[in-house]
Amino acid sequence: MVISYKGNEKNDFSYFFVSLSFRLIRMETFKRVLSYARPYGKSLPGYLMLSVFSVVFGVLNYALLGPLLTVLFDSQALAASAVKPEFSFSIDWATQWFQWLLASIVQDRGVMRALLVVCVSLVVASFFSDLCRYLSQRIIVTLKTRLMKNLRKDLFSKISSLHVGYFTDKRKGDILSSLSNDVSEVQNTIAGSFHILFREPLLVLGFLAMLIYMSPRLTLVSLVALPLSVLLVTRLTRRLRAGSVETQRLMGRILSQFDEAISGSRIIKAFTARKQVDAAFEQVNDEHRRISRQVYNRQELASPTSEFLGLTIAAGVLFFGGWLNVRGQLGMTWPQFIVYIMFYWRVLEPAKAIANQYAAVQKGLVSADRIFAILDTPSAIPDGTKPVKEFRNEVLFDHVTFAYGEEPVLTDICLSIPKGKTVAVVGPSGAGKSTMADLLPRFHDVTGGRILLDGTDIREFRLDDLAALMGIVTQESVLFNDTVHNNIAFGMPDATREQVIEAARIANADPFIAQLPQGYDTNIGERGAKLSGGQRQRIAIARAVLKNPPLLILDEATSALDTESERLVQDALTRLMGGRTSLVIAHRLSTIRHADLIVVLQDGRIVERGTHEDLVANHGLYSHLCNLQAFS
Predict the structure, then answer these.
(1) pLDDT, tens digit, 9 for 90 and up, residues 448-472
(2) Alpha-carbon span 326 to 341, nearest angstrom
(3) What is the Cα–Cα distance from 267 to 273, expressed in whole angstroms?
């Protein structure tokens, strides 16, 4: 499924205009990035109008250099030759009228007054050119920030909706790199190139039109060399893209190593492995430095290359113009020729900016591809269509099989969990206990057989409705960097303080919460780092109590706790399980001796089932596990 921002799509002509400007640089990716800035309808016309005015005033600013030079160096000839022209809508009329105006001022008021008029005109034209450019950039900033907001929104929404297996297969650093570096790269390159799409081409066209108007022959000769500049910059950008892919991959590894160094800091210190970790990081970091240096060197080469070629061409134009002037074929005065050279240089500046941005955009498109690879990840857990609001009778595992790829984890699981009963699943590590629990809320889908809820395959139900029927407490309690209250009320924003406190009391959490500095308003830190393991677990249980689900999944909820914490947590779990249907994954068998049914898994198959007393008397695997734990 492709997720993209949907805005006002009525202005199809605007979108076509934008798309046409970058037809040569992997248009599909570029257009898709650009779609996140929609709607264009209200912004693009104003931007185009301001850009046109900015170009007009910019051209006028340079056109006034000719009269300025004439007033300074040839004012007498100007005063003697100027005649008021007949009106016509043309550049010739505007030029002759301004020359006549200056000649009149020179005759009536003197040279200095004419010089003052030209200088004031220069300042006014420059002011309005820069003002229009600033106002147009404000519009671009609006589109740019809208693009980044919508892109981050879709990326975060996609990541939060991906199936659990996706995060097992992918490096966390690669995902974090897409969220931070790739999004920033898109913002700085593709989103930052909006003005290159509009204003710079308009500047090129405006100044090029003036060049052709002033001397078509000279302009035609000077433009012949431009394709050489385009060819060299294009070859640079091809090599730039390959290096960008590698740098982004390495940045993902760097972020992964940062994450591992933070989360595993105790183990690193305990095993005195800092040198080993530092050496591994230094290897990746140095490789990233080396490739980044190559990429940046190539990127920086585009600017001096285009500038050198532009200067070379300008020098050639100057020489050719001088040659024409010597032969009497230039058709311009020297002040006009100087203005021509200035116009030509102004054509080269936006052309150089386009070439430089072209190189930068290639790097940004690599980041965009990585972002869209996440957005285009298909949902491995398709949503159902049937609503479900209650649990009435039983959950049935009907010949369920599950495998990761070709490796089977569960085989032919048949199990009924009647409403109001507690069913425990035990077995050695790797037997498939947690996987079995994950199938019920559809963190994974079965690869064979089916799971029925009141006679209906759970794959037919809406995922949100199915999840609403279940409360889950895992071995590692997942808490957020927020207050105690917000962690207990997670997913239930309308819960009152009284309801939160009551849930905490049932979970044996209220006594220690009351001793925290701000009570229920205390921030518990990253992953609840300010709390002990038992306290974190009781917060997680309180969260399940507040949800009040008909189905409970307890996945080794006490296995990582000390004896005292286990007693408190087990007491809280007993209260939570009262009157509810529970699937309990147990490591410590003492916690499930009163279960209505105990199922023993081995190598993904059910090998025993019965009550605690029946299984102990059977002297099978369960009895052996009990003996290993000195169970009495």
Answers:
(1) 999 999 989 999 998 888 888 888 8
(2) 17
(3) 8
Determine the straight-line distance between the first and last CA of the chain, rounded to whole angstroms: 55
Look up the pTM and report it. 0.63
- Looking at the fold, whether 481 and 399 belong to one and the same domain comes out as yes
Give how many domains the chain has, as a whole number.
2
Radius of gyration of the chain (CA): 37
Apex CA 398: angle with CA 394 and CA 403, to 5°?
125
Judgement on whether residues 417 and 343 belong to the same structural domain of the protein: no
C-alpha to C-alpha distance for 582 and 570, rounded to whole angstroms:
14
Q: How far is CA 76 from CA 107, 137, 379, 439, in A?
A: 9, 44, 80, 95
DSSP 3-state assignment of 387?
coil
What integer pLDDT is reported at residue 2 of this predicted model?
Answer: 35
Structural tokens at position 75? 């004012």
Written as one string, the DSSP assignment of 427-486 is -STTSSHHHHHHHTTTSS--SEEEEEETTEEGGGB-HHHHHHTEEEEESS----SSBHHH
Other Cβ atoms less than 10 A from the Cβ of 265: the count is: 12
Q: What angle do CA 444, 445, 451 make, to 5 degrees?
A: 120
Range of the domain at 45: 12-375
pLDDT tens for residues 503-526?
Answer: 888 888 888 888 888 888 888 887
**What type of residue sits at position 369?**
D
282 in the same domain as 419: no
